[in-house]
Amino acid sequence: MTNESTIGSPMGTPPLLSIEGMIKDFPGNRALDNVSLQVGSGEVVAVVGHNGSGKSTLVKILAGVYTSDGGTVELSSQDGFDTELHIIHQDLGLANELTGIENLGITHYHGASSFAPFDRKKERAKARELIGRFGEPFDVDIPISKLAPAQRSIIGIARALDGWQHPRNVLILDEPTEALHATEVRVLFDAVKKLAADGAGVIFISHRLDEVLDLADRVVVLRDGRKVADEPRSDLDHDRLVSYVTGIPVGEAEHGENARRAGEVVLDIKGLTGEILEGVDLQVRSGEVVGVAGVLGSGREALPAMIYGSIDADVESFTLDGRPYLKRSPRESIRRGTAFVPGDRAKFGSVRPMTARENVTLPELKSLTGAGGAISLKREREHAQTLMQEYDVKPPRAEQVFAQFSGGNQQKIVFAKWLRNRPSLLLLEEPTQGVDIGAKQAIYDAIDRAASTGAAVLVCSSEAKELVRLCDRVLVLRDGRIAAELAGDELTETQLVIEGYGLKSEDEL
Ligand SMILES: Nc1ncnc2c1ncn2[C@@H]1O[C@H](COP(=O)(O)OP(=O)(O)OP(=O)(O)O)[C@@H](O)[C@H]1O
């Protein structure tokens, strides 16, 4: 399927970056198998592939994090300029305990020497200018662990674009848009297109095929460590790209009508107030999937954590399964049958040094203990193995250490872990962030199953398409309040965007 004739640099110049025959072996697993890839000046090359197809491994080799087991990497050196690689990693490579200003490295402009004291005002102004390219400025003086994932992403992107001196450098974006809202994505893409127009080469790694088709000039597809396609964007459409990624022709749409019936009220909140939220009323019934939409800063990000009890909030009343629940805490929420799958799953949803088996079975040890309270290893293994298959975790090795799975596969494991518990209330934040299309379907199916077996599900997501696919109704937050509730024929992607931004009609989109 590889179309070698299309590879190369536009304008007949040598590529800025040339990777030849790249090989990377992990014990028992070849993550990259003879992968070659060129990026020319002015070109945006997207690299796509399933979770575990080798995308991050390729980036880590380019970044010098891993040494390859074969192959070469060459950067151009022309007219006295040595092309540099600038990389925005999946996890953005940020230091969570440092502030936005410190992460942006701004102290080096304004008084990093003992003779020039820090000028906080200038630092702050510079930081706000950098992040201002991506929308509303936010607090740059607090540790970035306190920021929303989207805001942390903005810091990472702003940092990579700052200090960009030479037009013919190569920028590598490793799934940068996962935590960004559509508006920020647009700003980022405009910045990337401008860099390319000025002569940069760009490698863009993403699971979002629509974005790939929007941004890329050429698309390289990896499957199980091998390059299976390398084609100009003009030769591709969505379906063709999906079939390269999955290896199977995809005809069926992802939409599935749910024959669910809403039952008793499980979650009933009145007057939820805290952070940006002001007096939000919310009800979710058993068997119902309720979505929460809203642009960055609308209050959407904090809502599930407030319900779960990991962020403080005031309420007028709060009942769970018909009983008042005022002193909330994560421990008590779990005890009362609530599961929360956070957006930042790798950080909050897992124990990284443990195996996948230990992670998936962690919340359910009680049902796996045999006579005398000992954990039955055999049962735990069988159980974990079934879950790994059910959620299409690759490789399906229950004994592999969690941290050694690719990002998307880690998310499938965390998901499997929480849904396994049969929660009565399931709180989900960006449930398919960073997950490939195959796994996305597996997660959607699991959410449908959870609801049809009686769970009340609340899904907070920045993806309008996802909310339309999953939800019975969607609450749209704007400036901390519920601006609209959409259901039935009104629940469309366009309507979600109109309500999210407070626009009057489709013409204003
Ligand atoms: N440190 C490691 N030790 C062992 N195996 C690893 C390690 N890092 C990655 N792998 C394996 O290499 C393969 C490629 O993983 P990689 O992270 O490059 O995939 P990816 O395409 O970036 O996936 P995702 O989209 O989920 O991030 C996977 O099978 C993964 O389990």
Describe this structure in words.
It comes from Herbiconiux oxytropis. Residues 17-249, 260-504 form the ABC transporter domain. There is one protein chain. The chain is α/β, with parallel strands linked by helices. The chain has helices spanning 55-62, 100-103, 120-132, 149-161, 182-197, 209-215, 238-246, 303-308, 330-335, 345-348, 356-361, 365-368, 377-390, 407-419, 437-452, 464-470, 493-501, and strands at residues 17-26, 29-39, 44-49, 70-75, 77-78, 81-82, 85-88, 170-174, 201-205, 218-223, 226-232, 265-274, 277-285, 289-293, 317-320, 323-324, 338-341, 425-429, 456-460, 473-478, 481-487. The strands form five sheets. A six-stranded mixed beta sheet has the order 7-8-9-3-10-11, sandwiched between helices. Helix 16 (464-470) packs across helix 17. It is globular, with a radius of gyration of 24 Å. The two termini are 38 Å apart. Adenosine-5'-triphosphate (ATP) binds at residues 26, 29, 31, 49, 51-57, 395, 404-409. Adenosine-5'-triphosphate is lined by residues 26, 29, 31, 49, 51-57, 395, 404-409.
